[in-house]
Amino acid sequence: MRKLLFESLIRPPLTEPRPPVSDAAMTELAVAIERSARRRLGRSLSIRAVDAGSCNGCELEMHALSNAFYDIERFGLRFVASPRHADVLLVTGPVTSNMAQALDRTYIATPDPKWVVALGDCGRDGGCFAGSYAVFGGVSKVVPVDLHIPGCPPSPVDILKGLLGLLENVNEEGRVS
């Protein structure tokens, strides 16, 4: 036990280097999203995260958007606790049989205009969990999907680029063109 304690005092901590994204590019991307949201909605973009049965890989990257490095709140994007306050449903994971009805109810509770974003490869078609007895399928089998952001998991920058693309392609009726 003492040996382990002394080794932990001498050895430096094991950490990963920060992501290789320039601060200027990150700021430019977030400002473009804020500008598009204000033009399309007249206010900031509200996001409701829905875990439909994922492995939590996509959630880790999605929650990284709120950390001190990315800090999307400073650009007007925010995560909300209720679907009644959301503009975007950000759905992660394959939809499990137990979550299909809950996802449908969440979609119904979200006011129009609303957009659904399937995050990650599992959200598209079930990913490596497809064919399991417990998996209903991809997000599009339960609710209509407006955008799919690929990756396993997608990086926070990819998520921001996807949200910008979603806002840029929304027509006057509120549908993605």
Plain-language structure description:
The chain is of the alpha/beta class and 177 residues long. Helices cover 36% and strands 15% of the residues. It has helices at 2-10, 23-41, 57-64, 100-109, 121-125, 156-168, and strands at residues 46-51, 78-79, 88-92, 95-96, 115-119, 135-137, 147-149. Strands 2-1-3-5-7 form a five-stranded parallel beta sheet. Strand 1 (46-51), helix 3 and strand 2 (78-79) form a beta-alpha-beta unit. 33% of the residues are buried.
List keywords for this structure.
alpha/beta, two-stranded antiparallel ribbon, 36% helix, 15% strand
Quick overview of this protein structure:
By secondary structure, this protein is of the alpha/beta class. Helices cover 36% and strands 15% of the residues. The protein has six helices and seven strands; from the N terminus they run ααβαβββαβαββα.
Tell me the span between the first and last alpha carbons. 63 Å
- Computed structural class: alpha/beta
Count of strand segments = 7
Strands in their spatial order, largest beta sheet: 2-1-3-5-7
Sheet-strand content, in percent, reads 5-15%
Uncertain regions spanning at least 5 consecutive residues: none
Radius of gyration: 18 Å
Which descriptor suits the 3D outline?
Answer: globular
SSE string, helix = H, strand = E?
A: HHEHEEEHEHEEH
Name the assembly state: single chain
- Supply the number of helical segments: 6
The averaged pLDDT comes out at 82
Helix share bin: 25-40%
Largest β sheet strand count, sense and barrel closure: 5 strands, parallel
